[in-house]
């Protein structure tokens, strides 16, 4: 299977962002990509840098305008698309939601972000209700997709539950970056930790991991803080954690990558972690803290 990753820098103009995405989707499809992943909250700037009630106007229903727009493209090109939208579920209930559109243009499933951060510059708890759909892979024409979103990528339990539910691949639409005041050394440590933990998910579960991040600096609304320098570095890791493809930290890029899903069977035969798990001893993992 060929997968495409679109690493994009966004602006304030939502229609322009969508137009750029469409252009790059078509480029990826022309290169043979059957599965294409877009970054987290790809239609707009990353509005969660501040708490602003007017930003709820960005939210939309699912199905809705964006799923119609991207669904037509998916059907025309015969591709599977992984979208990331600000979902308006009802008045006052909003989610950070991934939507999976199959090659016939239909919505085959969605995932609502389960882990919601609340950090300086990432005030997501103000906007998003915690997800309630669990960690359930979505069946598509290219396989079972274990889609999660950004902050979820730091939690090994999420990846493990997706793997145990039959995911063929783990996918993370992402919006993560640096505070420009951090030292170069600290920036390097953060980005390296981010890549390392996800490579660990690939190793522990014998699955490929695809991560699609946005890139470039986005100014904070009204200069409330220093903005976020999104670090790009979108990548594909193989079932033993090996980096198969990776984008730069600075540029808009499309990555096209061949993925051999049969590697999971091969790797799990030599590293039978699922066979050897001591599930009789893991009950305390459901507790907040052991002491």
Helical fraction: 25-40%
Assembly type of the shown chains?
Answer: single chain
The poorly predicted ranges are none
Which series of helices and strands comes N to C? EHEHEEEEEEEHEEHEEEEEEHH
Helix/strand-derived category reads alpha+beta
Mean pLDDT: 97
Gap between N and C termini = 46 Å
Question: How many strands, what sense, and barrel or not for the largest sheet?
Answer: 6 strands, mixed
Q: How much β-strand is present in the residues?
A: 25-35%
- The tally of strands reads 17
Number of helices: 6
Categorize the overall geometry. Answer: globular
- Radius of gyration, in Å, reads 18 Å
Strand order of the largest sheet: 5-4-3-2-1-17
